[in-house]
Every structure is written in structure tokens, then in C-alpha cells.
Amino acid sequence: MPRRAELRGGIIDAAVLRDCCLDTAGTVDPRGLRLRGVHVRGRLDLAGFDAEFPIAFADCSFDEAPDLTGASVRGLAIVGSPRLPGLIADGLRVRGDLDLSGSRIAGAHPGGGSRVPAAVWLRDAEVGRRLLCVATTIDAGGGQGAGRRPDPRVGQRPARRRVRRDRMRPADGCRHRRLAGADRGPHRRRAHDGPNDPGEVALDLGEASIGGSVLLTSYADRGDAGRARIDGQVAAANLGVAGRVVIRGAVLRGPDGQAAVSAQRLAVSGAVSVEGGSRVHGGLDLSYGDLTTVTIGGDCAIDAPGRLALGLLGAEVRSHVTLEPGLTVAGSMRLAGARIHGNLVMSGVTLRSPVPEQGLVSARAVAIEGEVQLRRLTTEGGYLSFRGATIGGTLDATGATLHNPGERTINLQQAVVRNSVRLVDGFSSTGFIALNRCVVEGRLNLRGGRFACPGPSAENPGGHAVQAVGVTVRGGLHLRGARIEPSVDFRNVTVSVLDDEPDEWPERFVVSGMTYERFGDLRWDRAARLRWLARQAEYDAGPYEQLARVFRQHGYTSDAEAILIERRHRERRAARRHPLRPRTALDALYGWAVGYGYRPGRTAWLLLALLIAVSASLYVPGVRDTLRATDPRGNAYAVDGRVVTVDGAGAGPAGADAAPSAQAPRADACGDGQVRCFNPVLYAVDTVVPLISLGQRSTWYASPHAPLGRLAEWWLNLATLAGWVLSTMYVLSFTRFARSV
């Protein structure tokens, strides 16, 4: 008849205990074999043992590490053991729980086919329900142990692997609390080269399969005494978890230079969360994993300065990645190539101490279907890189403070943002923002932000606070209230709406090739816009042409022409030619006269003024007295009617070919029809307008022998030249050629 087997206190030989288990296998009560406070002398060898009952050791101590290789039991518990030199259980099959709670495991034993010793070997083990490690301490520095012959290769490697769980397949759940390893062997591999070198692993869950959840938690009411602790790395490559992975109130301390949790290709059906004030020294590497959600609480901290703090390289997250407000992360976050189907939330987080010459967040080519929330984020050194990323929602950095003097603070080069980019309302960047060739489907909103760059650098030779070369913004560029120092680079930017205050732009900027369709302000202030373009770092005609085009498209034709005239003025000044050079003088005259062809009406007024001036001068007696006319016979006429015949022209005798006039001189300015009568107004028209010939200028001329003859001659000739120039300008001003000279 089955009976319950229970032994309390005393000493028992391991061989006797083995015989007892074998001999009473069919008669033991289903509740199992229980030992309490017993000291097991020698090595307990239950290799290959097959029992239908559970075995429990409570507060028992062992001389040597028990060997359960290939054993099969309904349940196994070694709890509260003050001395357990290790556990060798490769291929162990436990249909119920495997409970190591409260035990102190100290030792190091080589595993079959492995050169790495470990305190607990559970390779190829299967646990049907839970693995319980509540308040368990694991110390692999307790020696080789006496149970097996030492592997000669082990002596060459001073560090030990603390727990091995290769290919473990428990079907229900797994809980781990207060696991501690004493030795922290030297750093033996470069970061992220794959599995760790031996001696750095405290808990190895590689290739395991957990049917329930993995919970690494602490007792909430016991303070530090009940805190979960792991000194050494948790290696969980290719671990599959059907439930959740929860780290709550734990302290994880990875080996020097390595991650505290290395769980590449981790597959978790539930959430992965770090909460309850957990402290992770060494970082979390979840690269290439298949995860549902990742959450790190705001009362936690990840401390891996100059190393990887959180790795999601190439991972697929089916929902959100959330770093809650208050979290401090020292180290770099790598999300390159990851695909996040929800939001990436880092609002209120503090990031610092990245990997040298790398970013605080490296998310190159990441695909985020939701939003990137960076509200009130604080960075100290390093930058946020989303180069080539695809973001399905808004990138919102409202109130964020980014500090990386002389270097970039945000890198969105070649990224695609399906909604808006918000760097607004208290946003502060000390460094420079790189937006080159990115596409923003919504708005690029910089309202109320502060952007300062202390000076140029190798990647920012212009010292611009914002680099946005070749950016396409379909929802508009909003700059009202933004303080940008000392400059911005908006070359070849394409936006639909430019919403700004012209006077709020920095002292210098580059807007060559920038195109926009309208302004956000209903006030179309031409003078303010011209003052704006006058502050370009270097003169470029393109922005003036673009400004004039926008004004003309919205019905401000006169303003558009004034802008183009100012463009020509600026161009002449930028050329820095000597003012007395003919080309410079002609260009200045052309601009003053007809506004470089955009103000042809000025010529008409100048011609009219010249006509009036010439007409008025011809009414001056001194000028009128200089005018003469000659008929075909050689008779001279003055405008006051005095007629001088050929024979009476001089005081001496008439020449041999001179003949006396047949008629006496008469006071007739026209010589009784011999010449065209003089008319001051028509004479002025004939002088000033070269396209018209009224016969006045060809008939009457200023005599150089008169007292004012030379002066009148020069005046009329200059008026003719001025009239020809003005008339030519008037005609050419209607052609494209005139406006391109």
C-alpha cells in the first residue's frame, strides 16, 4: 500500500537515498518523497531515474552536486538549501514544478560536450509548469565540485557560467526572484558579436520554450532583502515565451562591457515590461525579436554609459514601444531596421552618455506605423537619428530639450513622415537639426522653438542651426515665434505655405531654390519681404523671382514688379563694379529711368518733362535769337522776322557769285514761305522724339556765331540724344530682352 515517505533531520548517505528512491518507487504516496533538514552525504546520483511521484528537499544540505541527468519526475523541489554545490540535470523532465527557491547554489561543473562550467545545468530540460527561483542565490565561484572529473579545458577559463537552460521547454510558467552570482569575470568579447564568451552569463535561457510567463520580480514589502538580483548576464537567445516577460523591482548587473540582458531573437506573445523601480546596469538587447509591446517604467533606470542601453535592432514590435516619463537611460538605443506597428513613445525621458561617435537613438531605416512622441524629452550629448526612417504619424517633440553643442541634435535626413513634424512650444536645440531631403506630408512646425548652433563643424560647415536642404513639406512651413541663431539653410525647400514673420528670421539665412505657393499671413507686406531677402547670407536672384511670382499669382502685380526692380538693384550692388564704369552707369540709369523695364511709364513722364523743358527754353529770348533757318538760295532767317540776304550778310563787298535780292527784306520769319515757320512746341517734339519728324529740327538750328549759340546747340543736341535714349528704353521695356539685360 502506498505510503508517504518523509524524513526529518539527521544525515543520510546519498547511496542509501538512491536505493530508497528505487526500492520504494511503487509504494510511495503520490504526494511524494519529502526530506527536511537532512544532510546528504556523498553524491546523490539519480541519473536516468523515472518516478511518478514528486521529490522535495527542504532546508537540506549536500556535500556534492546532485546528478539528475536524464531523470523524469513529477515534481522536484530543492528549497531553502543552505548548501547546494550545484545541480547537474541535463535532459531532466519535470512534469510539474522545478522549485529552487531560497537555496544557495555554489559551484561550477562542466557540462556534457561544453567547455563552459556552470553551477546549474538544465540543458535540453523540460519543465511542464513553472521554474521557481524565489530568493535564490547562484554563485558559480564555489569551485569545480567533486561530482565529476574536471574538464581540462575549464582550467584555462577562470570565469564560470552560472546557470544553463539550453533548450528547456517548460509548458506553463517561469518565475525568477533574487538570482545572484558572485563572480563577474573579465570582459571577454566585443559587444554585440553574438553569444557571450563563457564566464559572463548568470542565467542562460537560450533556446528555451516557456508555456507561461517569465517573471523576475521582488517582494514589495521586504526592501532590499526581497529584491531580485542578478549579477552577470541573462542570456535568452531564441527564447520563446507564450505569456509575458516582466522585470519588476529587480537589479540586473551585466558583466563589464556587456548587456545585462542579451535576448536576441526573443519571441514573446505578451508584453515585455521593466517596472517597479528596476535598475539595469549594462543594457537590454532585444534585437531581432518578435515582440508585442515593450514598456519601461518611469521609475526605472538603464545605466550603460558608452554602451548599448536598449537594443531593438531589426526587431518587430506588433504594438507600442513605450519609455515612460521619468526614465533615465545612459547609453545608446538602437532601433535600426526595426518595425514598430504602434507608437514609439519617449516623452519625459532623459537620455545621456551615448556610445562615442554614435547617437543616443539610432533608428536608421526604422518603420514606425504610429507616432514618435518625444514631448519634454531631455538629451545630454548625442543625437536622435531617424535617417531614412518611415514614420506613419506625427513626430512630436513639443517642449523637448536637446543639447549637443556643435553637432546634430535630430537627424531626419531622407526620412518620410506621413504627418507633421512638431518642434514647438518650448522646444530647444543646442546644436543643429538635420532635415536634408526628408519628406513631410503634414506640417514642419517650428513655432515657439529655440534653435541655436554655437559654431560650424565638419558636418555643418555653415554653422546653421537648421539644415533643411531639399526638404519637401506638403502641409506648410510654420516659423512664427521661432528663435533661430545664427542661420538656417533652406536651399531647394518645397512647401505649400510659408507661415512666418519676416522680421523674425535670423540675421542670415540661405533660401536659394526655395519655393512656396502662398504666405500664411493675410498681410502681404512687400517692404517687409524685401527687408527679409536683403538679409540673405549671399545674394541670390532666385528668391526675389520666387517672391515676385507669388505676389503676381495672388494679384499683386505692381508689388511683383517692384520686387523684381529691387532684385536688379541688389544684383548691381552685389556685382561690386566700379561706379564709373560705363556698364555700371548705364545699368543705374536704366534702373532709374524705366525700372529695368518694369516701369515703362516712367519714360513717358521723362519724355514729357524733357518736352516741356525744351519748349520752355525756346521761349527764352537769348535761345530764340540763336536760331537760324536757310532756304535753298542761301538766304538766312531768324525767328523774329529779320531776313539776311546773301549779298547783305557781311560788311565787305559781296562776292563774285552773290546777287542782290530782288525783294526788299520783310519782317516775316517764314521768308514769305521760303522756309518752314518756327513753332517752339513742335520744335521741342521734333527734337525730343526721334520717331517723329515735323520738319522743325531739320529747318531751324542754333547758330554758333550768336552769343548763346554754342550753349543752345549743345542743349538741343543733348535733348535729342536724351529723347532718343528714353524713347528706345520705352520701346524695349515692352520686350523680354529689356528685362533680362
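Next protein, fold it too.
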Amino acid sequence: MTGGALLLSACAQDGGGASEPSGSASPGATTAQTITYAGEQEFNSYNSITVNNLVNSTAMQRVLLGFWYYGENGAITPDKDFGTYTKTSDSPLTVEYEFNAKAVWSDGTPIDCDDALLFWAAKSGKIKGFQVDGTTGVELVKAPECNAGDKKFAFEYSEPFADWDSNGPGAADVLPAHVAYKAAGMSEADFIAAVKAEDADKLAKVAEFYNEGWVIDGGISDMSLFPASGPYKISAMAPGQSLTLTANDKWWGTPAATPTIVMRVISQEEQAQALQNREVNLIEPQPNPDLLAQLEGMQGVTVHTGDQYTYEHLDFNFDSSDFKDKRLREAFAKCVPRQLIVDNLIKPLAPEAQVLQVRNAYPFEADYNTIANGSGHEKYAQPDIAGAKALLEEAGKVGMEVRLGHNEPNPRRTQETQLIADSCGQAGFKIIDAGDEKFFESGGPLYTNAYDVALYAWTGSAEVSGWASTFTTAKECTEQGKENNNGCYSNKEVDELIKQLNAEVDKTKHAPIIAQIEKILWDDLATIPLFAHPSLLAWDEQLQNIVPNPAQSSVTWNMDKWTLAP
């Protein structure tokens, strides 16, 4: 899970090595001019650091590049087209970065020092006002000592950091500073000086634009605010329907194999038919057994399932709901039919699927059993309706209404909600399906705590630092202050253990620390893990160079290599 964040559905290699997104078009091959990808959610922010939603990162993988990306099998992969980075010292930990000398934004502006400083200003947490998904790792870094026009900068750490090689700006992380400071009425010189001085007052309008100026509501009216740094650029958006990416003529690397990628918004129920009709060429829906059965019966379609670093969970609202009372959290945990959910909704896709016993390790990882055994999950293996009812009676909350929030339309989450309602209703809870199309949007229910229990997924990678802000005490329980800790959970012992984990460079020592954290999370009932998502992809068999990826980069990590025989 990334050194910066997990994405909603949120490392020991040397940064000097490099590889490129795999797959390439055959020289001289005739291919289609457009490939169409379908997803369930609409692209709603060019800045996926602020609006922490997988759909945004998926769309921007080859539009906004960085020094690294999640490559094949989710591995941290340096992107030498964009620049290079190397660890030059262990004491203090120092990593030196250099943007490619040819690197420019699609509007012709060089990519250099000011862009590195905007990333640091937002992600370090040292300058108030920026809304980000987490500050883990970058909070240990001093402001880079670069100047206007410099292509080189360094990250110098105050202490060791386990995931240093993915802590610098990666894919979709580097945003155009010149757009932000010009929108705020600042010059480049004034912007750089204000960042180095950590002057929040002078940067207030930059932070405001960073948080709001790249959020998309009702389409894009000024395309100049959305320049690209990769092989594709945004060229059009039809609200509620599609986002169109076209080849970036200012891109200095290998040109995109297919000139145009259209990312359509299609509900899960309609995606299979759209693929069968070849209205789209590739779909990446959430796992659904009915959909899988439909896809497997199609001719000329490749279907892929597999493991991925994504897990479903239920999160309590510790800020403004009755679930502040641990007795009520325990009562709810006792009635949630975790095994039934997996048996009915996940095993038809992945027969080996099991209930996820912890939050920060996956069943396909080597240390999973070490972390899970004895964590406390055993108490909630099967529903205990009598126990749940007794706790509700003790708390005087029989008949308690529970707003169970999730994104919609999403057939599987609707089914999950119904299974929970059926079981917990027997214990005395009244479950209200609080599904909302804007659940994940900035200002939506998840970020404003307009729910009692939230049902959603985190997607990440194999790194240990990515989930730090999910369980670390929030600076303040606001959309800007809580980072990934949406429910505003807090435990000082967990805070300290997470700091210890992030500073531990010896990977063999990670599992015991994570096991300690998991025991506390179960004792507190911070969240309820449900299952690890199996991946589900389907594409026209004429589509080439599709490489599924288990990490949060999604299948779009190498979209500039995709080709489609006409």
C-alpha cells in the first residue's frame, strides 16, 4: 500500500533501476485509432491526492507521470522517462531526484523545481490548508533546496523510512505548480519563497486552488488548467458519460501506441452487454458472480480473475454517531454475517476466497497467518445474535437505526447491505441502506461523516506505510484534516506502533509489529474487515498488451502500450 496513501475503490529496491510499462505495438502494425475502457464511477478530480478515489488515479496513470509507478505484479518501478532517483545516504537518509531534461507540461512549461515544491508543500503537512490523503513519510522530509528552473532536488529525512523508494512523487502525484500559483495570483519566485518559508498565509490561495480548482463537477470548462506530463492528455469530457484522452504532442518519450483512449462511465449491470456489442473494448468492474457468469459465456472475450491489493470493510463513524460506544460496535460486529457474505457473493468468483481476518495483510501474502492468528478476529467468526442483542439491551439501544453508507449503483454492495440488514435486524438494529451516488465525492457522505457505518474498499499495494494515515489519529475530524482516517478512529498506542513500523527498514520485523497493531484494532473494533477483492477484467481478444495489475495503479498502468486490431 503506497508510501503516501490507499485509494478508495489509498520496498527495498534501489531507485536507480528502471523499466518501462511492458508490451509494445508491432512495428508497422495497423491498429484501431480508439480504445474504449469502461468503469462504474465518473472521473471527478485531476488531483487524486485531494479527492482520493481510485477512478481518478486510474484515469491519470499515463497522463500525470511521476518518478515511479506500480508496474507488473504491483512492483515499485522507477520511470526513467520522467526522471531518475537514487538513495545517496543512509545517515541522514537522502534521496536525490532529477527530472528528465526534456520534461515539459503539455502547455510547454518545463517540469522542474516548483512542481517538486508543490508536492512537498501539500504532502509534508508542514503548511496548513492543503487537503491530502496522507503525509506519511513526506512529513519527515525537509523542504527541497531547489531554485526556479532546477531539474534536481533532494529529499533529506529526519529519520529512517521503510518505503523511501515510493515516497517521492509517483504516477498521478506531480501536479502543475504553475497552474496553481498563477490561479492564486502569485509569481513563481514568490511561490518558491513562500514554500521554503512554510508561509501558510501567503500560500492560502494556492492551497484553496489545490483543494478545489482541479475538482470536476459538471465537466471541464477550462482545459488549460489540466496539462499533462505523460503520453496522453485530457482532450474532452462529457459529464456523466466519458473522459477522452488523446496523444500528448509535447510528450518526449515513446508515443502512445493508440492515439485515443475513451474512458466511459457505464453501470456494472450494463458493462457486459456493452463489451459484447463492442461499444467498449475493456471493462474492469467490481467482482460480481452474476457478471462473471455472463462474461464467461461470451465469444471473443478474454476474462481474467486474480488476487489484488484491495479489501472490503465496514468502518464506524467515531465522530458523530452512537458507535462511539464500544458496546454498540461490538454488538454490530457480532451480527455482521461475514462468512455468509463471502460464501454468497465472493466464492462464486474465487472458490478459495475466505473471510479477511485482518486489515493490513492479505491471504495471498506470506505473513498473513502470522499476523492474523490470535489477533482477536476469532470472536466474530460467525454471527452471535444473542450476544449482539444482549449488548444492545445493555446500552438501551434496541431498535437503533444504522445508516449504512456506500456508493451506488453497486449491485454487490446493495446485496451486502441486505445480508447485513437481515442478520443484524434479528439482533435489534434497524439497518437503513444509505447508498449514494456521491458517496466518494468531495463533500460527499464519506468525507462529511454523514453515515453511521461505511461500506467500501481500500486499494493499495504491498508497502507497509500506505495505510498509516488510515489508522493514525487525525489532526482534526474534517475533510481536510482526517486524511484517510474517514471514521476518525484514535488510539495513541496504534499511533506509536505505526511510527515504529514506518521507520523499520528491516522487512523481517514488519509482521510482528503489524500483528500488534491488528490486535489493538480488533480490541477497539476500529473497523470490520470483510474480504480481499478478487480482480475481474474482461476485454476484446483483439486487444493487445493488457497486463492486469494487483496494485492501485489498476490495469491502466500501461495503457499507452494498448493496441486493438481493427
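About the second fold: The two ends are 38 Å apart (CA to CA).
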